[in-house]
């Protein structure tokens, strides 16, 4: 629905900012390296802000009239006495409630880690074994970028190539719509949100308007290893960001902007860290240990 509405809007594509930071050779991420990863111009900020407002209006509109899992409300004492008019108003009011989904009914695991850490690879294993729906924010953005007629195509392409973070309104709308689709199609209630949130404001907004996350799975990996993996994948992936220039920018943004998100979740005791510097099967063994405790058959 977001996509259809998007098409009808004819909104101008924002002139996107350029990345200004380059990666320094380093192995580990620490709290002492926080810097601004790009200084957008005033015009770009204005364009993004108006795009964000429009995207959110669409998101709210897209919720109207949809019956999906939401926070359970205690029945009002006078429920049986409500007149017809009041009863007609209720569904529309409920549809606008935020967060959109109840954390008691919908489980979200944020899967985070540097570029090439192995998030997508491990999510596919988890999808198979634990009945999760795997939603990669990067895949959803690439799909939107390639969709013929997308008003956001050029903007997304620029941000991805520069390793920058696409304005959250676009990503959150794509994620929420994909969650709804999966709920409608297969009554899905468990979601792996791969590669999102990458910025603190994204984390706060998603948890406010969509659903609070249950746990954060963090794949820890040295940059040198991730670099080798991405360059190897770049030989055949066709991804516009699997080249040395883009990879350096992606690393810098992860280090400076995305890693603090993991640190913030850590303070809430929500993070399960798994080292990725070993073969896929061995990494998965460690992931399973955490998931069996959290989501095993008896859970
Ligand atoms: N591989 C995996 N595990 C291995 C292992 N244990 N041993 C040996 N090899 C292993 O794996 C990468 C490669 O390594 C593969 O070839 C794999 O076989 C091998 P993969 O599972 O794909 O790693 P992953 O962590 O998913 O790497 P990816 O490149 O997808 O991570 P990114 O976070 O960089 O990419 P994403 O698609 O999430 O985002 C791309 C861009 O989209 C971002 O840079 C940003 O511009 C934009 N974006 C946003 O703006 N907002 C968002 O919310 C999300 C994305
Ligand atoms: Mg991935």
TrEMBL record:
Binds 1 Mg(2+) ion per monomer. Keywords: ATP-binding, Cytoplasm, Kinase, Nucleotide-binding, Nucleus, Pyrimidine biosynthesis, Transferase. GO terms for molecular function: ATP binding; UMP kinase activity. It is found in: Cytoplasm; Nucleus. Signal peptide: none annotated. HAMAP family: Adenylate_kinase_Adk, Adenylate_kinase_UMP_CMP_kin. Its EC number is 2.7.4.14. Residues 232-242 are annotated as: LID. Transmembrane segments: none annotated. It comes from the Eukaryota. Residues 64-98 are annotated as: Disordered. This is Uridylate kinase. GO terms for biological process: 'de novo' pyrimidine nucleobase biosynthetic process; pyrimidine nucleotide biosynthetic process. GO terms for cellular component: cytoplasm; nucleus. Monomer. A ribonucleoside 5'-phosphate binds at residues 142, 164-166, 195-198, 202, 239, 250. Its main location: cytoplasm. Belongs to the adenylate kinase family. UMP-CMP kinase subfamily. It catalyses: UMP + ATP = UDP + ADP. CDD domains: ADK (cd01428). Residues 136-166 are annotated as: NMPbind.
């Amino acid at each position: 629905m977001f996509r259809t509405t998007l098409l009808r809007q004819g909104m101008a594509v924002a002139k996107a900012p350029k990345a200004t930071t380059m990666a320094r050779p380093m192995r580990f991420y620490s709290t002492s390296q926080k810097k601004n990863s790009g200084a957008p111009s005033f015009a770009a900020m204005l364009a993004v802000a108006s795009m964000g407002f429009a995207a959110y209006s669409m998101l709210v509109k897209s919720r109207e009239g949809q019956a999906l899992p939401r926070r359970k409300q205690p029945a009002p004492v006078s429920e049986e006495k409500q007149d017809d008019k009041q009863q007609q108003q209720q569904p529309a009011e409920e549809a606008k409630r935020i967060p959109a989904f109840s954390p008691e009914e919908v489980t979200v695991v944020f899967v985070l880690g540097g570029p090439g850490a192995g998030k997508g690879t491990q999510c596919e294993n988890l999808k198979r074994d634990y009945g999760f729906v795997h939603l990669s924010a990067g895949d959803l953005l690439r799909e939107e970028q390639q969709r013929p007629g997308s008003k956001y195509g050029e903007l997304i392409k620029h941000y991805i190539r520069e390793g920058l973070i696409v304005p959250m309104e676009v990503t959150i709308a794509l994620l929420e719509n994909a969650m709804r689709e999966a709920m409608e199609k297969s009554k899905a209630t468990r979601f792996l949100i791969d590669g999102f949130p990458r910025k603190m404001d994204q984390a706060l907004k998603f948890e406010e308007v969509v659903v609070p996350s249950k746990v954060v799975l963090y794949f820890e990996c040295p940059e040198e290893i991730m670099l080798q993996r991405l360059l190897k994948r770049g030989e055949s992936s066709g991804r516009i960001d699997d080249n040395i220039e883009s990879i350096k920018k992606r690393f810098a943004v992860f280090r400076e902007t995305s890693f603090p998100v993991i640190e913030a979740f850590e303070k809430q005791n929500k993070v399960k860290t798994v080292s990725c510097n070993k073969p896929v099967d061995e990494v998965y063994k460690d992931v399973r240990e955490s998931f069996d405790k959290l989501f095993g058959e008896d859970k």
